[in-house]
Specification:
Length: 459
Amino acid sequence: MVKKKTTNVTAFRRKKWNLNIGVVIFGVVFIYLVITVLLYLTGSHVTAYEVREGSILKDNAYTGLIIRSETVILAEAEGYVNYFAPEGSKVGAKTYVYSLSSQKLDFSSGGGDASAELSPEEEETLLIRMQDFAENFQDGRFSDVYSLKNNLDFILENRSNQSRQTRLKELLSSDQKDVKGYRAGEPGVVIYSTDGYENIAASDVTCEMISNRKYEPSDVENNSMVKPGDPVYKVITDDTWSLAIELDDETAQQLTGTEQIRVQFLKDHETGTADFAVYNTEDGNLGFLTFTSSMVRYAEDRFLDIELILEDESGLKIPKSSVVKKDFYVVPDAYLTQGGDSKETGVLVAKDNGDAQFKKTDIYYRDNEKGLVYLDPGVFPENVLLKKTDSDETLRLREKKSLRGVYNINKGYAVFREVSILCESDEYYIVEAGSNYGLANYDHIALVGNDVRENDVVF
């Protein structure tokens, strides 16, 4: 009997492959993400700029020559001069201004010692001035140091002058023949120095005078010897004064016809408004600024550093690189209408069969004076015909005008917004705020306007 051979081989049925939808979806999403990342890494990116309120101040710095009504008073006799009134103070007619004596006067005694300790009120005034300086000092305004020095000197000098006045009055009242007082002939502000510019008129001014190269003032100090006919002081008799500045050709042409101009005085950072005129002479271009106030504040100066404030505008500050020009169809606003039951604004587009179809459109600018609106050409076909509501009048879209604006990207895509430029600097514009078709504070715009187009999606 023959035995059958057995084996351990088992036959399996071939398994049919099934499609896994989850793997497919994952694969599609993965590929999409890879493509998106590659496009982002290789594509050009739009840099956003946040619009903020700001201002631009345009000014030009000059040194000016002061012209005013001044009278030089000469000594009537020989002697040592001493002054009653502080320099830069106002005196009335018949008020004692100076005295002459045959010998130098000693002011270290007689109850008016200027070197005595300061009173509590004087100490408090000095401390307030120094504290105010310390709290408000800025590195870019070093001239404030000189302002502080002048303020402190004025307080101390005023105290010394009070002591001197007391002593001089005591000497005069004692009928000492050695001391004689002299009164002011007319009211005004007294200055105890002369410089030879006291009698010049506007027609006498030259660029050489303004340059300040040969300026040499002559001061007269207390207890100094004077002779008959020597200048002892001058008196400024009028509150109206002028400042002459030299202008280059471009600035002179720009300012010709300007009647008033704003000025900042660099000495104390005060501002004022002056009447203004430009005179073109063979020597150069001269500008004359005339003031009717602040004379006393600068009575001791012959030259002043100033800035002409040519532009000072506030609004929304945007970079120049963001501004572009775009063409729009110009349409009378009578062609605007609302579509059906909706409140959407648009126009009626005429069809070949005579009917009209409503087409929604955005308004990019409205000229209320001329009754015109600006519409985007990108939403209309060429030579489209518009129809006026409830009328047979039609208008073929042809006329275009340019608007300056920026691309607003607040919503993730680019939208053109018109801007009205008020002034500019080298890198920025100041544009009008509050326009219905313009920008608002904190809007985000494309930093480089030429990098985007209308309705571009911005990452």
